[in-house]
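Aim 2, interim progress: modelling of the norvaline-bound target.
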Amino acid sequence: MKHYLQFTDFTADEYNYLFSRAAIIKGKFKSYEKYHPLADRTLAMIFEKASTRTRVSFEAGMYQLGGSVVHLTTGDSQLGRAEPIEDSARVISRMTDLVMIRTFGHDKIERFAEYSRVPVINGLTNEFHPCQIMADLFTYIEHRGSIAGKVVAWVGDGNNMANTWLQAADLLGFTVHVSTPGGYEVDEKLAFGGKPHRAGCYKVFADPMDACRGADLVTTDVWTSMGYEAENEARRKAFADWCVDAEMMAVAKPDALFMHCLPAHRGEEVMADVIDGPQSVVWDEAENRMHVQKALMEYLLLGRV
Ligand code: CP
Ligand code: NVA
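Predicted structure of the complex, ligand included:
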């Protein structure tokens, strides 16, 4: 049994397989072809933080594969009344086939997985967001082909998305140019779990313009992630210069793409003319959450088909 808690849980070969399956599964969806390999299977989705894309993509995706879903939140389950995570895992995993969790500390999802009888998927923790990066990579490949050897500019917070980009760069052979304000740097020990990584899979730039120079893909995220709202005011000041604008896009490669995991704040981390402009692929990126996660659920439950 496999869990998907971090990007590093799969090999490059497994990602190649998943991207090819996602393309096939997307093709079936686009041509209204019924595909129900997960008939009678149930996905439990546990949300301890808000979500639009993750919920809709997993829920619609599971129904499209012939299965069904159970949706739980902290507020409407015993999780919010301090039932231990280990007990919740034992109970939920006896009645369902697959569990997706969005929560705060990554340790919580690890504890759940340890006590779960069924595969567990990370739908975002404070530290990682692997399903999003899988969708981003699939989107890049659809538009531009292989990402190996390419440069991804990360402009903004050294957060869950940044950590996961670093893991992906290490595994799939591309480079991340990271530019964060002082005090919000990526934590290499956290991103790589203290394990060795490929030298040069990421480079740090003080000036976000330098990070974007020559990039094949420019990407950013909110200044304040869920769970960090108390820091909002300090972050608004610290991140003022970390806004992806037309000038930053102009120093990237002429055919550079722009991505954002969404939700976005126009005028903060990205200007409207960039996110709504011709280089932006954010809507494909959002839609592809569903296609890659369908491939992921199929793989976790049925293996290679
Ligand atoms: N990108 C993403 O995970 O979006 P939601 O928070 O809406 O799920
Ligand atoms: N970094 C953001 C991503 C939201 C999808 C957060 O954790 O809130």
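The chain is about 40% helix and 15% strand. The first strand starts at residue 42 and ends at 47.
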